Request: fold
Amino acid sequence: MARTLVFRVDYAHPPAAVWDALTTREALTAWLMENDFEPRVGHRFSFRSKPMPGWSGIVDCEVLELDAPRRMVWRWRSDWIDTTVTFTLAATATGTRLELVHDGFEGLRGHFVSWMMRGWNRLLRVRLAARIAEDDTTNGSVR
Amino acid sequence: MSRVTRADDAVFRAISDPTRRRILDALAESEQAVGELVALFDVSQPAVSQHLRVLADAGLVQARRDGRRRLYRLRGRRLRAVHDWSAHYARFWDERLHALGRHLDARAERES
Reply:
């Protein structure tokens, strides 16, 4: 039931530059969130963002693997999820391909993410959309 | 990154159970009586009724009388919040990785 989110992005910059942006505190603050990251295995750090209803705004992390400039793995815990995030860099003709794998969505929310994104796709697109429209009409309000 | 209210928490709890998810799937297809759900799944009637109570408490299903039968239907509105949450989560990295691209571009420009 665990759900994995995979992203692949090509950047027109060499792996060293991308690695630097992934492993320095200032750069991580610029593109991700405020943090107290240090590039060493076993270092525990947090990302802090503005809290929102239902989310503390805090992500507790730990550096699990570090293999410059190729691969880095973080434990990524936030409220009700305990997951891992893996960054893998590969040099390409034009720069760097970054693969980000966010893995281990288990438990309630994990079940939900998994469920929503697999078997429920058809249901969501067709039936649920219709039901929401119907509910909104009958209840006379739109969320 | 994610917005989940306390009420949504009840929804997440409700859908954490595989039988309840199957019940929701069935109700998404059409309205069903308890007996029909019992026939669909290998679960006792009291168990199905219990699951339906949890789903109703979370606001995910609604019952109506049809003569002697109680018919249950899915309430899509309550699921939308959690669907939005999960879509939001998938979008999070997409947005952040674009921000990383902008950061790299800006830095390269400064250094050139």
Summary: Confidence is low (pLDDT under 50) at residues 117-133, 135-143 of chain A. The first strand of chain A starts at residue 3 and ends at 11. The domain at 3-105 of chain A is CATH 3.30.530.20 (Alpha-D-Glucose-1,6-Bisphosphate; Chain A, domain 4).
